Amino acid sequence: MNQRNDYPAGVPCWVETFQPDVDAALSFYTAVFGWQPAGPGDLSGDGDGGRYYVARLRGLDVAGISSQPVPGAPTSWLTSVAVADVDEAVKAVTQAGGTVVAAPFDTPPVGRAAVVADPDGAVHGLWEGSARAGAQLVNEPGAWSMSQLATPDTSRAAAFYADAYGWTTETLGAGDGAATLFRLPGYVGGVPQQPVSREVVAVMVAGPGPAQWTPNFWVPDADAAESTAVRLGGRTLVPGFPSPAGKTVVLADPQGAVFSVTGVDHRA
């Protein structure tokens, strides 16, 4: 299921990065992942909203690269969750203890969106797709695979995401290496050979804060991707470590947006 045309409500569906220098970001991620950017589109629709590019592999949408709609905003990656109705989803988020960062807005013709935060401040998006459901290619080298939440209070986060999106949790591992898998019961995603249930939609780990969502991208070779990123001005935040899918490295791009890469053998 590497190619996708739809995402059920409650499934993370899209990742995008907001950058002060969008041209520099395009050059960096094109070199690291081999993306072909398409665009730009206007963020506001009135010709004065900055630039938004859709990154593609083999002609399929994999991520967004955007100038910052608000100058001075943090440089970051945003993970968005598919919802049936953005306005109703915002109500569910606030009732669950979250906050609204950006109220629902239209992005014609592709969909309707909002930006919210969980009770510990982890910012993420809500996406009601029309012309674009989300990423069209996932779980392949150069494409997004899954996003991870690092948070100081995993119990509070588990309760919030259960109430807001219907996610359940399952512990993977033990001790300092333990992680929590978020699952959406009944969902079938991922790839058949993956080492965890195909209901898994995200991962959570305990961290000192601030709470943050970080996207993970598959690559043919984690060391090579790290070397390219560092050569182009990025930084290694967490050196390579073993993960269920392969060797993972946590990186920051030259403008500070955090992401990770995992080296996988796509032939498996």
From TrEMBL:
Coiled coil: none annotated. InterPro entries: Anthracycline_SecMetBiosynth (IPR052164), Glyas_Bleomycin-R_OHBP_Dase (IPR029068), Glyas_Fos-R_dOase_dom (IPR004360), Glyoxalase_6 (IPR041581), VOC_core (IPR037523). Pfam families: Glyoxalase (PF00903), Glyoxalase_6 (PF18029). Residues 11-129 form the VOC domain. PROSITE patterns: VOC (PS51819). This is VOC family protein.
